[in-house]
Design goal:
By secondary structure, the protein is an alpha/beta fold. The protein is built from 14 helices and 47 strands. The protein has a domain at about 775-940: Rossmann fold (3-Layer(aba) Sandwich), CATH 3.40.50.10140.
Length: about 950
């Protein structure tokens, strides 16, 4: 029982350990994914990015620890049950834009943590009964743009937690099929089923399966009648019934206003509906509607607006895609409650001055994408306006009164116009303005529009976008009125000159973008950036900054930008070789991200990064470096990402002494690396991503460590399966990972495994042997010694000096003296050899024993327990046994003074074997008949040269 209990406890322990390891394995997958070379994809921040890889099936080398899996834009046609096996922690999966026509039942059964699934734009025609098995935690499902006609009765049953379902652009054709879907979805809140060729919508087709819906989109369906006769949508708040391209009209049949009593947002863009039905529709939601999109409806604009604005709760109206060239003064007179009005895409050319007079609550007004040539005076009547969008019009000039009284305006969009000039007074009243977008105009000068003007200036402006204009110079004091400005975009201009003091007043600026201008090194005059004390990002990409020497600058241009964290200075348009002054980065003590790629640099001074100790990301790609100083990277021990692609470097050996122990990302594409040494890999222990795409490698033992490391390391090596061999010539064009380099090095781990295993097995064998066979081994050892002795002496013609050699233990000597000698020598006259009497003094004992045995006709072994414990007695019987075995003569007589069980004769295996076959003399048994004992012994001594196993054959 105890043994069975112990066995059961061991089994339980194994089970618990196994479960613990499983849990440990599952918990470990939340760590950012690393440690593999993928054939087609890459892993970034726990996301497997396999989009646009030309895949025809789901790759099998993706680690199951990823949390996101993007397989969009490939050529996958079938999803098999094994494709996503063991992806227990996957949270989102995108299979959009493939050719998937079949999904095997249970293909997603292991995705127990999946929250979002995207199957958009595939070739699915039907969904099987068990297609979504295992997705009990799915909350979002998108199946847009397929050809689905048939849905299994239980297809959606596992999706008990689904909240969002987009089934748009399929071919369901009957709302009853929608019921078969959503009746299994108790938590569904958003349902999008637009463009499914529904011709009717009846509430009885849904029954009570839709009571939890809050968002419903049935747009772009050729619905002829929308009928609700029961309260099947009691929680609906958002409804989209936008029209389709079909010309027939929709009839609205909702008699009871309480059925849609919570709907606050309606989109009826392009709906084909009689004006009376539109009135009925809006009356249905009259008490709850706040947001209405009424775009491109073929009815009188004034009538539609009047119907809409008669709803007392309406606050937001979108009225797009009407050809309203002129907006009259009475068009919005009923819209007194509106706070948002969108009139984009209406081809408006002019607006009456009093058009918006009644909209005193209006906070957002969009007039974008129209044909306005100037800012309409009507906007000046909107004293509560917070955001005004005049983008994408034909405005060429701004006047001083264009924004008069707009004291509450917070955002003004004027981009994509034709404005050429800014007047000094144009923004005078915009004291609350925070965002001003003037990009993509034709501005060549700012004319002091942003200078401080007594009490009227842009003191609260946070963001100013002036990019994509024709500015050439930033004059001194140009932005002194923008004391709160944080973001300034000046890229895509023609700026070539920065006057001293041009950034005065911008002490709160954190971002300034200068890319794609004409700035040269002499534009970076001393002190020009000194006012930008809080600047965090500065971008000078694609300018014309070039230095001919790495000599130190007298006045480093950025010495006061101590808060700068991100700085870019690549692509300077010149093909001439350039260098970077050794103190160019002086003052940037908090810089974390530096981009100086594609700057035509040929070298970097060893002191370049001395001033940037906090640097974490460095891009020096697309330059012509041949090598780096050993001390170049020493000042930046916190570096985590390094980009050195296309730099003409032939080796990564500079990393050995760089001390970049925190480097986790290294991109070194299209260089001339042929050998990656072990020391290089050891020098970057924190590396989790390595990109060496576009290099050619030496495919011999020099790269054996690198090749094995790719397959076994904790680093993801991007595109490793495409690495090609360049040397030796016979392997040119072969893939690096296909080369067998096992013969190049000794597998230490395997040797350790074999050594450890052998040692354990040897220990087990020795332990077993010692426990069960130790006496057999001792006996074998002495037999071997006897054999050697026998070989040495058997050919000696030693005459028989004695009739018998007596082998006994000294503790048995009294019996020998008192019993044996008187009978054999005294009465029977035999010549006996006794070791204490007849051995030659000074001669080795083993030689005495051997000579005595071979010099006697017989050997008499007087056996007792003390005899069995004696080493010399053991040797005597061994030598006698070898004589017996070798000569096959009757030369051995065994006398037992006491009863000894055969199991105690284990050390004398041969003796035990003989005793099982033959009889022997026993003194204890002969006590009643001593005369017979001595007679039998006398007969044994008289036995001649008979062959056979010569042991006494008659027991007494």
């Amino acid at each position: 029982m105890d043994e069975r209990r112990a066995t059961r406890e061991r089994q339980d322990l194994k089970h618990h350990v196994f479960c613990f390891l499983c849990l440990l394995n599952i918990s470990s997958v939340v760590i950012p994914v690393t440690g593999f070379a993928l054939k087609t994809c890459k892993i970034s921040y726990d996301i497997a990015k396999c989009d646009k890889c030309g895949l025809t099936k789901v790759p099998l080398d993706i680690p199951p620890a990823v949390k996101g899996f993007d397989l969009s834009f490939n050529s996958i046609s079938t999803i098999k049950t094994s494709d996503f096996k063991d992806f227990f922690v996957l949270a989102w999966l995108s299979l959009s834009s493939n050719f998937i026509s079949q999904i095997d039942n249970g293909a997603f059964s292991d995705l127990v943590s999946l929250k979002r699934l995207n199957l958009n734009n595939n070739k699915l025609v039907q969904l099987g009964e068990d297609v979504f098995n295992g997705l009990s935690n799915l909350t979002e499902l998108r199946i847009i743009g397929n050809r689905i006609k048939v849905v299994g009765a239980t297809s959606f049953r596992p999706l008990i937690n689904l909240k969002f379902l987009d089934f748009s652009h399929n071919k369901l054709q009957d709302v009853k099929k929608v019921h078969s879907i959503i009746r299994h979805l108790p938590n569904l809140q958003e349902l999008y089923i637009k463009n499914n060729h529904f011709t009717s919508f009846h509430s009885w087709e849904l029954t009570n399966s839709s009571v939890g819906l809050k968002y419903l989109d049935v747009s772009q369906n050729p619905i002829k009648i929308f009928q609700i006769t029961a309260d099947v949508l009691p929680n609906l708040t958002w409804l989209n019934i936008s029209g389709s391209s079909v010309t027939h009209q929709m009839r609205w049949d909702v008699k009871n206003k309480t059925y849609l009593g919570r709907v606050s947002t309606v989109d009826m863009t392009g709906v084909q509906m009689a004006l009376d039905d539109i009135k009925l529709l809006l009356q249905t939601v009259n008490s709850s509607l706040t947001t209405l999109s009424m775009n491109a409806i073929k009815h009188n604009c004034a009538a539609l607006i009047n119907i809409s604005c008669s709803i007392p709760t309406l606050s937001s109206l979108q009225f797009r895609k009407y050809k309203i060239k002129h907006v009259g003064s009475d068009l919005f007179k009923l819209c007194v409650n509106l706070t948002q009005l969108d009139l984009a895409y209406n081809q408006i050319e002019n607006i009456s001055d009093n058009t918006f007079r009644s909209l005193q609550r209006l906070r957002f007004l969009s007039l974008s994408h129209n044909r306005l040539s100037s800012v309409p005076a009507a906007t000046r009547n909107l004293s509560a306006l917070a955001e005004l969008d005049l983008s994408s019009n034909r405005i060429s000039q701004l006047e001083c009164d264009d924004f008069a009284n707009q004291t509450k305006l917070r955002q003004l969009n004027l981009y994509l116009n034709s404005i050429t000039v800014l007047k000094e007074c144009v923004f005078k009243d915009l004291v609350q303005l925070q965002v001003l977008k003037l990009q993509s105009n034709r501005l060549s000068k700012l004319n002091g529009a942003f200078k401080e003007l007594s009490s009227f200036h842009l003191t609260n402006l946070r963001q100013l976008q002036l990019n994509n204009n024709t500015l050439t110079t930033i004059e001194s004091g140009e932005f002194t009125g923008l004391q709160s400005l944080q973001n300034l975009t000046l890229h895509d201009n023609q700026i070539g000159k920065l006057e001293k003091g041009c950034f005065t007043g911008l002490g709160n600026l954190t971002l300034i973008l200068f890319q794609k201008n004409e700035i040269k090194e002499d534009s970076l005059i001393p002190g020009v950036f000194n006012d930008l004390i809080n600047l965090k990002r500065l971008d000078f990409r694609e300018n014309k900054i070039k230095y001919d020497s790495d000599s130190a600058l007298k006045d480093p241009p950025f010495s006061q930008l101590s808060h700068l964290e991100k700085f870019a200075l690549p692509s300077q348009h010149r093909r001439l070789k350039a260098q970077l002054p050794r103190n160019f980065l002086q003052g940037l003590k908090n810089l974390k991200n530096l981009d100086i790629g594609n700057a035509q640099l040929v070298s970097l001074h060893k002191d370049t990064f001395t001033y940037t100790p906090q640097l974490e990301r460095l891009d020096i790609s697309s330059n012509e470096f041949l090598d780096f100083s050993d001390q170049l990277f020493s000042p930046i021990p916190n570096l985590k990402s390094l980009y050195i692609s296309r730099t003409s470097l032939s080796s990564l050996d500079f990393l050995i002494d760089a001390n970049l122990t925190k480097l986790s990302f290294l991109q070194a594409r299209k260089n001339q690396y042929s050998i990656i040494r072990e020391e290089v890999i050891r020098s970057v222990p924190a590396l989790v991503y390595l990109d060496l795409q576009g290099n050619s490698f030496t495919c011999d033992c020099d790269n054996s460590f690198f090749l094995q490391w790719i397959e076994k390391s904790q680093t993801q090596v991007y595109d490793a399966y495409s690495f090609a061999c360049n040397y030796p010539a016979k392997l040119k064009g072969e893939k690096l990972l296909s080369i067998d380099v096992r013969s190049c090095s000794v597998d230490i781990a395997f040797i350790c495994y074999i050594s450890t295993t052998s040692a354990i097995l040897l220990f087990m064998v020795v332990s077993y042997t010692y426990h069960f066979l130790r006496w057999h081994l001792v006996y074998a050892y002495y037999l071997f010694l006897a054999l050697l002795t026998d070989k040495k002496h058997k050919n000696k013609q030693v005459p028989n000096q004695y009739d018998a050699f007596i082998s006994y233990n000294t503790h048995d000597e009294p019996w020998i003296i008192e019993e044996l000698l008187p009978k054999l020598e005294g009465e029977q006259g035999w010549r006996l050899c006794l070791h204490h009497r007849d051995f030659e003094p000074g001669k080795p004992i083993i030689d005495n024993i051997t000579d005595a045995i071979y010099g006697s006709r017989k050997t008499i072994c007087v056996i007792s327990r003390r005899y069995l414990e004696s080493e010399w007695c053991s040797r005597e019987i061994q030598v006698a046994s070898f004589r017996l075995f070798d000569e096959q003569k009757d030369v051995l007589i065994l006398i037992f003074l006491e009863e000894i069980p055969t199991c105690e004769l284990s050390p004398y295996f041969r003796m035990r074997k003989l005793l099982k076959k033959r009889t022997y003399l026993s003194w204890q048994r002969a006590e009643k008949h001593p005369a017979l004992f001595w007679e039998k012994l006398r007969q044994a001594l008289r036995t001649g040269e008979d062959h056979g196993e010569g042991v006494l054959q008659v027991a007494v």
